[in-house]
Design a protein that fits this description.
With 447 residues, the protein is an alpha/beta fold. The chain is 43% helix and 15% strand. The chain has 2 domains: 2-228, Rossmann fold (3-Layer(aba) Sandwich); 234-446, no CATH class. The radius of gyration is 21 Å and the shape is globular.
Length: 447
């Protein structure tokens, strides 16, 4: 199968993770643009080079594409770009011509512009450092009250006008994509929303798109992986099993649906079926939280996993460790490592949000289950990276660092490499980078 893939940006979870998943099946020919064409935290993608790359691709079976990348230069640029509506419209109509000519199944996603509830402008326009929280409050209260909030009197007119014009531009572009969906251009079109609150302009836009027939999904970075899974033909029956079943109605950080609904939604969007354990091809073990979802880096504690746990090792199983956001539950990982993986281990993930973990995990498990030419070493490499990133770094070593320092990082990771290598029965020799020069994400390279 020949699959083209245009990611959101050049982060490891967006760029190298999809490639590692595709390598599990040697019959997948995975085509992705050169990494230097894509954007990062401060740089926009080279749209012209991406258009040329896409035009020159030979016949494809499927194409998974970030519309934000092609229209604005990436997810972060979609919030920052000063390009006019007409300029963006011109760009996407050129994209439509290319996609129509490909005659492949198109799996596309576009973001609903988020509203972060803070004054951090790292991924927003410059004025967010002073006015971000006020803009969030204005959005929240205007939606909740059903009329314009008086908070708008606090925010300078030129800043509020710029913000609202950017929102309107992006929303109008999304409405064009929805019309194309109705015309049959896309096999699947997903509108993604992240950092969700109960009220806000983003919530209003999502409701409007849904009312017009669009499909809206909470999440962001995992959606291309979920669509990659969907692009791979074949149904896999997946049975969710929760470590705290009485708490599966609770809502994860950064999301607006229960963890149970999040799990079922990810399974269904990936082209799989939710089933009971007795009929399942793969059991999905969800290490869910029992009160509030914890977050180690934000110093939000939660009750860790405890007690004995059956890993359903008589049939294939995978593990979504979502008790904490942005990292693993150390108590759960210890239980897993002490028990051993077994031959039916189909993957682990504790990456960032619950949706991020679930989408990437299900994609890899589906590729492995349906692989016509399974590469066991590729699967082990993928799992080594996930444990070193999600458990070793995010849940442990990250808290020992005050700033990006690859030398110190490599030193601190050594004992974790030994533990992961023992669990996976492989010798690990890893190198580490901070690709965006911040502690939030790390890149693990296995030699």
């Amino acid at each position: 199968m020949k699959i083209g893939f245009v990611p959101i940006d050049n982060r490891p979870v967006c760029y190298t993770l999809p490639q590692m998943i595709a390598e599990i099946d040697r019959n997948i020919e995975f085509l992705i643009p050169p990494r230097e064409f894509l954007g990062d935290l401060t740089k926009y993608a080279y749209c012209e080079k991406l258009f040329e790359w896409l035009e020159n691709l030979s016949e494809l079976d499927a194409l998974v594409i970030s519309l934000d990348t092609m229209a604005y230069g990436g997810l972060i640029p979609s919030r920052r770009s000063a390009d006019t509506f007409e300029r963006i419209k011109e760009r996407i109509f050129r994209l439509r011509e290319i996609l129509t000519a490909k005659q492949a199944k198109i799996y596309a996603f576009s973001s609903i512009m988020r509203i972060s509830n803070n004054n951090i402008n790292e991924e927003e326009k410059e004025y967010w450092s002073r006015w971000g929280k006020k803009i969030f409050d204005y959005s929240y209260m205007t939606h909740k009250l059903g009329s314009e909030s008086c908070i708008n009197n606090i925010i300078p007119d030129e800043i509020l006008d710029d913000y609202m014009n950017t929102r309107k531009r992006n929303f109008e572009i999304n409405k064009i994509y929805l019309e194309w969906q109705k015309e049959g251009l896309f096999d699947t079109l997903v509108f993604s929303k992240d950092d969700c609150a109960e009220y806000g302009f983003n919530v209003q836009e999502a409701q409007a798109l849904e009312k017009a027939g669009g499909f809206v999904k909470t999440g962001a970075d995992e959606i291309p992986l979920t669509l990659l899974a969907r692009a791979i033909a074949g149904n896999v029956r997946i049975a969710p099993v929760f470590t705290a079943p009485e708490c599966k109605n609770l809502i994860s950080n950064y999301e607006d649906v229960s963890i149970e609904k999040s799990v079922n939604g990810q399974i269904e969007l990936s082209g799989c079926t939710v089933s009971g354990v007795s009929e399942a091809d793969i059991v999905l073990i969800v290490n869910n939280f029992e009160d509030l979802q914890g977050e180690i880096v934000m110093k939000r504690p939660t009750k860790p996993f405890s007690g004995n746990f059956e890993f359903h090792a008589e049939r294939p199983y995978m593990i979504a460790d979502v008790r904490f956001a942005n990292g693993a539950d150390n108590a759960f990982v210890k239980t897993l490592f002490d028990a051993g993986a077994g031959e039916n281990f189909f993957g682990y993930s504790a990456w960032n949000t619950s949706a991020n973990s679930l989408g990437s995990l299900i994609c890899a498990a589906k590729v492995r289950y349906l692989a016509s030419r399974y590469d066991a070493e590729a699967f082990k490499r993928l799992e080594a990276v996930r444990f070193l990133d999600d458990w070793a770094y995010q849940a442990n070593v990250r808290q020992m660092l005050e700033q990006p320092d690859t030398g110190r990082l490599a030193e601190l990771m050594k004992p974790f490499e030994k533990r992961v290598g023992g669990f996976l029965h492989m010798k690990l020799n890893a190198e580490y980078k901070f690709p965006w020069n911040r502690l939030f994400e790390v890149e693990v390279e296995l030699n």
